[in-house]
Write the structure tokens for this entry.
Amino acid sequence: MTLAKQQKHQLPYFEDSRRLFSPLADKKWSIFLDSGFPYSDQGRYDIIAADPSVTLVTTGKDTKITQQNETRFSSENPFDLVKKHLKFGCSAFKDIPFNGGAMGYFSYDLARRLEKLPVIAKDAENIAEMVVGIYRWAVVVDHVKKESWLIGNDSHNYDWRELVEQFSRLPVESSTDSFTVLASPKSNMKKARYRQAFDKIKAYLREGDCYQINLAQRFCSPCSGNSWSAYQVLREINPAPFSAYLNLPDVHILSSSPERFLKLTNGEVETKPIKGTRPRFKDQLEDKQQIADLMSSKKDQAENVMIVDLLRNDISKNCKDGSVKVPKLFDIESFATVHHLVSTVTGLLADGQHALDLLRNCFPGGSITGAPKIRAMEIIEELEPNRRGVYCGAIGYIGFDGNMDTNIAIRTLVHSDNTIRFWAGGGIVYDSVMEDEYQESYDKAAALLDLLERFKRDKGY
């Protein structure tokens, strides 16, 4: 099989890519990987795509593969299946980060295909563990160069001229149904239950089972309508560089994640774990004091170093010997409601390795499990009332050219079955204080709780 012929067309530049995506928002398999611009200047590229030529949906041990209206099932590892469907692509444009390829989500629970974990918690979402499309065209917006490009290849699943015309004219927003939250969100862990789980983790830490465990609670509300309306507000009140809106079969994903999981560009690997959080204050002096407190916190630094070491080990499985470095340790990154302590770990991909090999061997991200990873995941399964689903999995792209960028799916809402859910949590170590950790989960949840409050039925919006 030969590589497809690649082509690109320059489009008018719009500062807010929401306008380009809005006409596609109601379309199944439409995806918007959102840098948060213009509400945040931390990101650079937005990527918009729809009409995948192949879809892969993993539920349990089987992956449903649909191509040209034909469907088959495979029990092969889902990561390997995605890798196979990226084999015959092309990468003609080195100045554009995504030249077509795989886009979608890999849920936290997909880890059961990689490790043997106990089955204790109840299902959280009742949706697929992996939903990925193979996209032959995409719109890529570069907010630094202020350029927009339509890229694609000579596939038969779309009309190139029609796409050029569609994205060249002034976008007309679709008539999207309104979104309504029917009741205030409820947590699956009252404070007393959270305390019990916290105390159990402390016991495991004292016994030497683990060094750090991420404990999260889930918030859930009944809802109705189209969540694209909610996402447009979310990206204004909580802009983040690794945000996304995914309209997929049976589920809509609304992510405002601040955390990069894995980036791979021309063989260079980068991961940016977050460990350490302080809430923001409107008063500038108080806000600066929060940053100073976070920067000087030995506890937060210790948490961060544990995860940095875990990720150094994870990416080294697929990187060249001696290439794994930590160029940035304990950086401060500030977002709408919180400050975070962020480190950067880099490496060079080893010869013969692929982005999917790297993703598989690092999955799920260590910053949202704890250390050591497998034992941490066993304890999470024991103590959290529901499975995590999409939460703490990964959303992003893996290109035909082997490049990749994925987030850690935190600050992420999942809308399905007339219910909207999100999670918030944090890492617990030996010297953690229960009241502080419980409050931190609410600090992280603040923007999402605000969003749902804005759309409550008795409030209106």
Notes: The mean pLDDT is 93.
